[in-house]
Amino acid sequence: MTTEPQRPGTLAEPETELEGIEVDSPRVGIVMGSKSDMPAMEKAADELRERGILHEVRVMSAHRDPDKVADYARNARMRGLRVIIAGAGLSAALPGVVAAHTDLPVIGVPLTSRTSVAGGLDALLAIAQMPPGVPVACVGVDNARNAAVLAARILAS
Prior knowledge:
Elements: H1 14-18, E1 28-32, H2 38-50, E2 55-59, H3 66-75, E3 83-89, H4 94-100, E4 106-111, H5 121-128, E5 137-138, H6 144-156
Parallel strand pairs: 1-2, 1-3, 3-4, 4-5
Helix pairs in contact: 2-6, 3-4
């Protein structure tokens, strides 16, 4: 079977033409509900950096700015993201809201704070108990590093 050469001025199929091209866009998005979550979530960024995985870090609240979170999640794949790590404490709505607006894998990181219940159990249960059809992986409380390791394994599969 032979393929006909492209005529000047025609476009190849975009999917086949772009396959295999490496891009310098982030592969993993790291989001958190508050700037105060940054010290815990930086561990995910550090792990991804050590592994040479491009990532981005954003602060956005599922409660204070739900439209921003929805837009971020809806456009994540188009921007090159393949996994999203979402850290949140207390009611921990952010991972579920992100998962509701994307088909990308979402990894939730339950975070503790001075007002956490039972050492972060409130956030752990909020992330682990997603409704059917809105899956969120969940790592241990304050364990953003494990979320990055899981993201790396997802990318490698």
